[in-house]
Amino acid sequence: MTADLHDIGGAPVVIGAGVAGLMTALHLAPQPVVLLCRTPMGTEASSTLAQGGIAASLGADDSPELHLADTLAAGDGLCDEAMVRRVVEAIPRAIDGIISLGASFDRTLDGALLLGLEAAHSRRRIVHAAGHATGRELLRVLVPAVRRTRSITVLEGIDVLRLIVSAGGIVGVVAARHDGVVALPTRRVVLATGGVGGLFCDTTNPLTSFGQGLALAACAGAELADLEFVQFHPTALETAHRPMPLVSEAVRGEGAILVDEHGRRFLSGVPGGELASRDVVARAVFAQLEAGNRVFLDARQCLGPKFAKRFPAIEAACRQAGIDPAVEPIPVRPAAHYHMGGVAVNAEGRSSVAGLWACGEVACTGLHGANRLASNSLAEAIATAVWVAESVAGTGAGWQWSRLPTIAPLRPDPSSIRRLASNALGIVRNGNKLREAITTLLPIAVGGHAAADPALVAMLIAIAGLRREESRGSHCRSDFPGREAAARPSRLTLCTAFETAVAHRWLASAGSS
């Protein structure tokens, strides 16, 4: 369908066309909904790159209680147990729904779903497609399903730049397209914009995924949560290509080991070894790199000539980099991969701003806590999209403005701040670097140029990181290596963030004068 952009009849607007956005739109049918995406559907979403799979307790030796326990352990004390329980109990049934849409998952010879093992899971419970192309398979079935659903209006080539708020609630969306800026009147918006990996030099995410949804929510006055928790995948293929090809955790699940350039296995003394939680493995790899060593993932003994059949896309990426993983170890390094923090939402995906929901990686539901358990991200998107859609559908369209302002900031570009963000917000942080980053980012964030929104998101993460004076999960402070006994999830708004940033900038200028 096509639409008059100036009159969408108050239909809800979903921003983002990854798994979370597509499924939310599908679950809203037959209610009319407008789906906005900056590129053609399925071409530039983190979901496309998702290799790990979907975590679900489907094995005879497994249960939602065991999945719950593993998720809570990985979350390092900051998970919302009620939300974790709700997701792990819902996801087995949700997978049946995905299969009914036509998704094809890996199966054993007798036809049962083939369940893989990934880091910090106590059971084989990862459902994969083509070994490591689960996200691509989901989009393969979801994109056509959305296109043939008449109640969904898809608008591609749209950059959403601001949410319009009046009397404490959403009243519209301001966006840019090829022929200028447009405004869409709506009182219901769902953010499904993905993560923040595009802020970093080394990332497995699309470079445009810099946290635009967080900037939109923050400028609308929404509360944000746990922004300091950024997960770095320990085994991205060391190459000049960006985003970096991911060497899936499933390879380590098959027995691959991490070694230095001398062939020494440096995780042999760590509980869980290569399948310890991602924060532990990422810091171990980072330490080796900081010491001047190179790091390799060695799959020669466990897979060898079977590598290409088991992981064809990873093998192809390795071959493109001049590596044959059947006979050579694979050079790897950590890369920004997933954001546990996001827009603070309740069990229905509602934010603190009336008319604004969030779903998928941009949302902070409490499922992941301080460190996401492997393959819980797609599980979260699939499970929560249903609840978000039900909540949106149950909320009236309300009164609509006939005219909305169409003044908007420039299209965002994070390229100029990537090095700064990488240095200050990386695997190991410290207070001095975080303070320096905050004072540097503040004038950029309010400067009105293309780097403003990326600088704002990076500044918010830095402030959250500075406030958490401990090391927990994916957040590691070299100046606060211990854990607080009574640490809680963190909350932040744009107002409190600016107060903090201005104070630090004033202190920095006073100290230098």
Automatic annotation (TrEMBL):
Keywords: FAD, Flavoprotein, Oxidoreductase, Pyridine nucleotide biosynthesis. InterPro entries: FAD-dep_OxRdtase_2_FAD-bd, FAD/NAD-bd_sf, Fum_R/Succ_DH_flav-like_C_sf, Fum_Rdtase/Succ_DH_flav-like_C, NadB, Succ_DH/fumarate_Rdtase_cat_sf. It catalyses: L-aspartate + O2 = iminosuccinate + H2O2. It is found in: Cytoplasm. SUPFAM superfamilies: FAD/NAD(P)-binding domain, Succinate dehydrogenase/fumarate reductase flavoprotein C-terminal domain, Succinate dehydrogenase/fumarate reductase flavoprotein, catalytic domain. The keyword Nucleotidyltransferase does not apply. GO terms for molecular function: L-aspartate oxidase activity. Its main location: cytoplasm. Belongs to the FAD-dependent oxidoreductase 2 family. NadB subfamily. This is L-aspartate oxidase. It comes from Mesorhizobium salmacidum.
